[in-house]
Structures are given as structure tokens and as C-alpha cells.
Amino acid sequence: MNTDSILYGRSPQEDGESLHAEIAVHPSMCQTRIVSKMRTALRTTALLCVFFCVRAQQAAAADKPEPLKIDRGHTALLVMDYQNDIVGMVPEAARGSLVDKAAEALKAARDIHLPIIYVVVRFRDGYPEVSPQNKRFAILKQSGRLREGTPGAEIHARVAPAPGDIIVTKRRVGAFSTTDLEVVLRAKGITTLAMLGIATSGVVLSTVRWAADMDYPMIVISDATADMDSEVHRVLIEKILPTQATVVTTQEFVKAVHSAK
Fold first, then answer.
1. What is the pTM of this model?
2. Are 198 and 87 in contact (CB under 8 A)?
3. In this structure, how many other beta carbons lie within 10 angstroms of the beta carbon of residue 10?
4. Three-state SS for 259?
């Protein structure tokens, strides 16, 4: 390939055929000219390789997300609906790993003294908070689950609260709905919410939507969050939640926590 090939759009095959034609017509063509053409072609090829390599590196750098950073003075970790009845609804094959990841994220947050806020859903005896018009909670009432004081309503032992942790009780799906969570966050000067919970399509999605409307930056820990429908979880984690929150793995969260100032 020579510079004419680039300027006038000739292919390497056409360029080679042209050179062979010249040799056929002018058998006395000197070797120097052939070598010159070959050197030109090699230089052009090398320049093109460098050009495309640089462009590829620039594109890769542009697509690479910024490393997660944690502001330890203004970030809280929300552990949402990690209650025995709800954890027990997660498919057994995924349950152990899910709770392990939650415990790992929780330990990392405790290591740097991030505020830990548990969000739980519980109802009084007789479920006076549940309207028959609420389809989801009407079914829950019939099941008898999540009543205050029952083992199923308690927080799972692997992620149990420690002294000084805050527990916020809700009567609906989202962490802000029917709770004083916003008051707690403002009192503590919290401006960023890291969160994990069950289910992705329930408390996590509802909380992200609400917090986004309140302009909170958010971090969702994907593998410490689960849904009873794995495909719903995948779509929310990969396509929906990233539009309003930073979605990371437990490993990425732990690394950022350990790097926090």
C-alpha cells in the first residue's frame, strides 16, 4: 500500500496489481524502486496501526468508569428487609452467598464506622396498617408473616444489628414510606446512601426512586441484593438502577470503603 492508495481509495490488492503491471511493462525497473515502494507501504501500515491503537485506547479510557469513592463522613449503609421471613423467600441455592455478601459489606462499613441503618417491615397484631385495597400487603396479611415480635420479623442473625445501629420500621415497601428515615439522615448529616436489600424489585427499587427525587447520591451493592425472580433482578441491576444510582459489587464496595478517607 502506498500513499496514493489511501488518497484515492485503492485496495492493497489493486496497488499490488499495479506494481506487477509496471514490472511486466518495464522489465528493467530497478530494484531500488521496488524497495522504495515496499518501505512506503510498511511505513503507512505502521502509522495506521499506531493511529487505530491510540483511538482504541482513548475509547477504552472514555468507557472506563471512575473508581468508587466513599465519603466516610457523609455516607450511611442501609440494610433493608434482611428479615428471616424475607431471606427465607430467596431461592435456597442463592441464599447462602447472598447473606455472606451482605455480612461482608456490613463488616467493611463497620470497620470505618459508617452509620448502619436497618430498615425493616413489620405490622402490629391484626395488621391494622394493611388496607384490603393494597394487593401486596393484603396477601401478606393472609400469610401471617412479619408480625411484630415473631421470629420471622426479626433481622437475620448473620447481619444482626450491633449496639448503636439504628432500626427504622416501615409499614409499606420503600424505606422512606411511613418512616422517619429522612429525619435520621438529616440529623446525622448523611448525603450519600449505600444500600443492600431484598427484594430488588421491592424495597431497593422503591427506595432508589424516592431517594433520587430527593437528590441523594446512591450506591447499590448488587450481589448483596436479591429478588425472587432472577431475571427481574438482572434487568433492574443492569438497566434500570444504574440510571439513578452507582451499582457495584460487594468487592468493589469493600475496596472503596478501605480506601475511604
1. 0.76
2. yes
3. 16
4. helix
